[in-house]
Amino acid sequence: MKINKKLEWKNIIGYSMYNFAGGTDMIAAVWLMYFYTTFCDVSIIAVGAILTVTRFLTSLLSPIVGHISDNFYKNPLGRRFGRRKFFLLICIPLRAMIIPLIWWPGQSTLYYCIVCVLGSCIGLLYLIPAKALLAEMPRSLDEKVKITGLTQFVSNLTSISVSAFPGVMFTIFGQNNIESFSYMIWLYDVIATTCLIIFYCYIVERSVDEVGYNTNASERISPLKWFKNMVSDTASTLKIRAYRSYLGMFLAQTICRAISGSLHTYFVVFILALGTTVVSVISTLSYMLGILFLGMFVAINNKVGGPKSYRVGAYIALTAFASYFVVAFMHPENSFILACALACLLYCGKSGMVNSTTYQASFIPDIDEAVTGVRREGSFTGVDNFTDAIFSAAEMLMVSLILGATGFVKGGQVQPDSAMNALVGLFTITPSICIIIGLIISYKSNFTLERYHVLSTEVARLRDGGLMSVATPEAKVAFKDLTGFEYENCWGNNDVLCGNKESNQYEESKVALKR
Question: What are the φ and ψ backbone dihedral angles of 163, each rounded to 5 degrees?
C-alpha cells in the first residue's frame, strides 16, 4: 500500500472532517435525554437504563474492534482496502440510516434501547479507526501538532454548529415543537455522512511493512484462543507506564465533561430559570471563544507538554464549578450574564484538559512500539473507548438514579427542591472530584517532550537495524521512564504481546540484543 512519507495539508484537513460526523453524537449528549423525557414519554430512569446498556455493550465491543483493526492486514480484505478503511466502508452507509431512527418519536422504550445500541455499535466502526489514525498518520512532532491542533479546531467548529442549530430550529419551529429536533437531526445526518466520505478519501495508513505484524503467518487458531489472545494483548496496554498516566487523566476529563454536558441543560433551565433557547445561545458563545482557548492551549502544550497543560485547564475548570455552586444558591438577578461567563470559563478549562490528553494520545503508540516492536493504535483506542464507556455508563446510571430518587419529574416545567439540590451537587461537586483525581495523576506523570524525543530517535535507529547493545545511557533512561520497562526488555524482548514471536522485529531484535 502506497503511503506518503510526509503528510500534506489535504490529508490533515481531510482527517479532521470526521469531527463533523461526531456532531450527531454531540447533539445526543446534550439533547437526547431531554428529548426522550419530554417528547417520547420515557421516564428519566428508563433513559438512564437505555444509555447505560448502550455504553456497556459499546465498551465490550471497542477493544475487539481495535484489536481486529490492528491485525486486519493479516486478512486479504485488509491488504486490499486498508486495515482502517475497510471498516469505514461498512460504517458510512449504515450510520446514515440509523441516526434518524434514534430520534423517531412515538416508539416504545424497547425500540429506543435497540436503535441506540445499534447506532452506537455502528459508530465504533468509524470512531475506532479515526482515533487510531490520530497517532498512526503523523510521523514527526510538527505533524502531530498540526493534526491534533486542526482536529481540535474542527471539533470546536462542530460544537459551534451543534449549539447554534438547536437555537435556529427553536426560533423557527418553537422550543417545545418536536419538528425542531427532526429537522436538526436530518440535516446533521447529511452533513455527517458527507464528511465521513471526505475523511475516507484523504486519510493515510501506514504500510504493511511498517506496522510490524507478520502478515504471512499461516497458523490457524481456534476462536477461543483468538479471544484469549485478544483479551491478553488488550490488557497489556496497561503495562505501558505513559499510557497508565494518560488514561487516568483522560478518564478524569471525559467523565467530567460527560456529567457537565448531560446536566448543563437541566442546570440552566431549572436552577438558573432560563429557557432552552438560552442554552443554545450560551453554548454557541462558549464554543466560539473555544477557538481562542484552543490556540492558547496548543501553544502551552508545545512549550511545556501535555501534563502541565492539563493542570492549567484543570484549575480553570475547578474555578468554574466552584462559581456555579455559589451562583446556584445566590439566585442573582443577572443570571443570563453569569451563565454566559461561567460557561465560557468552564469551556476554557475543559478545552485545556481535552487538548492536552488528545495531544498525549498521539505519542502513546510510539512509546508502546518501543516495548512491543509493533504498531497497535487500534488497541489503545479500544481500551480508551472501553474504559470511557464503562465509567460513563456508571456515571449516567448514577445521575439518572439519583435524580429519579430525589423526585425529578419527567417533562415537568418545575422540579421539587430535593431534585434541584441533587442537580446542583451532581453538576458541580462530582466533576470537581474527577478533576482533582486527574490533577494528582498529572503530577505523577513522567512524560516530557525531551524524553519522548530521545525514545523516538532510538526506536527509529532500531527499526533501521541498529544494535541494542550500543544504545546510549540517555536512551535507556528514557525507555525506562516512559515505558516502565528496562531497555533490555524492550523492542519485542518480552511477553507483553501473545504474538510477539510472530512480529517482524522479534527475531531481529533478539539477534541484535545478543550482539
Answer: -75, -30
Whose CA is closest to 422, among 439, 409, 437? 409
Comparing C-alpha atoms, which of 373, 375, 365 is closest to residue 490?
373
Distance CA 254, CA 258 (A): 6
Q: How far is Cα 332 from Cα 328, in angstroms, rounded to an integer?
A: 9
Question: What angle is formed at CA 218 by the lines to CA 214 and CA 222, rounded to 5 degrees?
Answer: 110
Q: What is d(CA 211, CA 216) in angstroms, rounded to the nearest whole number?
A: 13
Nearby residues of 200 by Cβ (< 8 Å), 6 or more positions away:
85, 88, 89, 92
For residue 458, give Cα distances in angstroms to 137, 243, 360: 20, 19, 19
Q: Contact 70/92 with Cβ under 8 angstroms?
A: no
Please state, in angstroms and rounded to a whole number, the distance separating the CA atoms of residues 248 and 509.
Answer: 32
Torsion of CA 450, 452, 456, 458, to 10 degrees: 70
CA distances (Å), origin 448, targets 155, 312, 349, 509: 26, 16, 21, 26
Angstrom distance (rounded) from CA 183 to CA 189: 10
Cell 535507529 sits on residue: 461
Give pLDDT tens digits for 152-203: 889 888 877 877 777 788 888 877 788 888 888 898 899 999 999 999 999 9
Question: Whole-angstrom Cα distance, residue 171 to residue 286?
Answer: 20
Contact 15, 172 (CB under 8 A): no
488's CB contacts (< 8 A; 6+ apart) are 468, 513
Domains and CATH numbers, the chain: 9-205+240-447 (1.20.1250.20), 451-514 (no CATH)
* Ramachandran angles phi, psi of 484, nearest 5°: 85, 0
What is d(CA 397, CA 392) in angstroms, rounded to the nearest whole number?
8
Is there a contact between 355 and 302 (Cβ–Cβ < 8 Å)?
no
Which pTM was predicted?
0.83
Structural Rg of the chain based on CA atoms: 23
Q: How far apart are CA 6 and CA 17, in angstroms?
A: 19
pLDDT in tens, 88-127: 999 999 999 999 999 999 899 999 999 999 999 999 999 9
DSSP string, 134-156: HHHS--SHHHHHHHHHHHHHHHH
Q: Which helix (H) or strand (E) holds 511?
A: helix 504-514
> Rounded to 5, what percent of the chain is helix, strand, coil?
80, 0, 20
Cell of 493: 524482548
CA–CA separation, 173 vs 425, rounded Å?
34
Closest CA to 137 of 4, 309, 277: 4
| Lowest-pLDDT choice from 216-220, 266-270, 324-328, 472-476 | 216-220
